[in-house]
Design a protein that fits this description.
single chain, alpha/beta, Rossmann fold, seven-stranded mixed sheet
């Protein structure tokens, strides 16, 4: 009989899914399970708009769940000289591909939920696609996982955090995706993380992006 404890935490099923995508589709948008390239590029733009500082003010950014570092390619192509990029992923397979492409970039292969894990401090963290899929986790399991990760990550952020989740304001929902009610999320952020947050639901995809800051905008 199979021992469920040998599989490890249930959230690792999400990692397994993405690694299958990488194996099947390679270093492409499909390899990180984004359906099309155009929408993926839009997500990179929206994620980076969490940064308040102008291009005259250098900031450090950690790409949490970096995959094969498509966000770094976007940074290079769209002139973000003030952003000092580093990548982190739980999967050594993704990190190996990213490090091969960009050997001078600092990468971290880390499970933030593992005992003793320490996230490097940084000005900003972006978490693009980390919470959009829940696979076989039920809502309560994914919600608990989400809260723990956000709390741990925000503790190491100096300025701000960006992440996306699937919207509830859609015509239909997929069981394998994480559709998170905005009121539930706002209550959690205000109580446990920060009351300085922005919800973005205007960019045309079936998701929304959230910026969470350490301080209000007028403190810049």
């Amino acid at each position: 009989m199979e021992n469920p404890l040998e599989k490890g935490p249930k959230y690792l099923e999400i990692v397994d899914h993405y690694e299958v995508c990488l194996e099947q589709h390679g270093d492409t948008h499909l390899g990180v399970d984004w359906p099309n390239e155009q929408d993926a590029q839009l997500r990179y733009k929206v994620m980076l708009e969490v940064i308040r500082e102008t291009k005259n003010n250098p900031v450090s950014l950690l790409d949490f769940g970096c995959g094969t570092s498509h966000l770094y390619a976007y940074l290079q192509e769209h002139n973000y000289p003030h952003v000092q990029y580093a990548g982190l992923d739980i999967s050594p397979k993704y990190i190996a591909v990213a490090q091969h492409k960009y050997p001078t970039i600092p990468y971290y292969c880390l499970d933030i939920m593992a005992a003793g894990s320490v996230l490097p401090a940084t000005d900003y963290v972006v978490m693009n696609g980390v919470f959009t899929e829940k696979r076989t986790l039920n809502f309560d399991e994914m919600w608990a996982y989400f809260q723990q990760v956000i709390t741990k990550v925000f503790a190491q952020v100096r300025l701000g955090l960006a992440f996306n989740v699937m919207s509830k304001q859609v015509d239909w929902e997929r069981e394998d995706l994480f559709h998170l009610p905005m009121d539930l999320l706002a209550t959690f952020l205000k109580k446990e993380v920060s009351r300085h947050f922005v919800f973005r639901h205007e960019y045309g995809l079936f998701e929304y992006t959230v910026y969470v800051y350490k301080s209000p905008a007028n403190n810049l």
